[in-house]
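Lab notebook, bench 4. Still working through the backlog of constructs that have no structural model yet. Next entry is a single chain of 229 residues. Request: give me the structure tokens for it.
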Amino acid sequence: MTDDRRIFADDDTQRKVVFPWRRTVSMCWANVRNRRGRFALTLVCVAIMVAFLMSSMTYHQVLADLAGSSDVHVKAVLEQIGTFTADRASLRKQADQRVWLIVLSSVLCITGITNTMLMSVTERSGEIGTLKCLGALDAYVVRLFLLESLLVGLVGSVGGTLIGWLLGLGQAGVSLEFGLLSPRHLAMPWVGPAPVALAAGTVMTVISAAYPTYVAARMDPVEAMRVEI
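Model written out:
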């Protein structure tokens, strides 16, 4: 094994191997490079979900800002597309529909990411078994998989946020008029919706990886070495 491995004695008999964070990060990066297709699929799932969330928040933030305008032309455009209304029941119904769409898409995305990572765990059974036979603790396996999911979730969330921002502004421009969008409307989404979308995508990916990580950490080293893909 490499020299950056640290071995500690627990009591007088049990020996544990603890890998430093530098080694963990390098292994995560190597796994991402070696399994580009698998991680690309996860990135796409995260990016789609975050893009949908970001575009919805951007679009409705622009509408909410324009709804507070006293300009007659702006109000006329909003009334034309049916978004300018004082009916609270109608506004509540629209908000509920948006929430349900976001929840359903989140569930589908989490299911897809979890399935993809479970397949990754199965493919890497031999690698996990080797690490455990060399003395790696369950905590190290958990750290390895969660760090990978965090990396993929962050990258996918950044891409999804950018795409969703463009889609949200495009939807607002097509539904209303591009001339109504000021530079302030272009920058507004990066104050509120963008951090929410980034956090939601990253957290969602880590949550999706929780069960596959548990499966990987609980693998018996000998049985893991026998698995054939």
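Notes after review: The first helix runs from residue 21 to 34. Confidence is low (pLDDT under 50) at residues 5-15. Flag for follow-up if needed.
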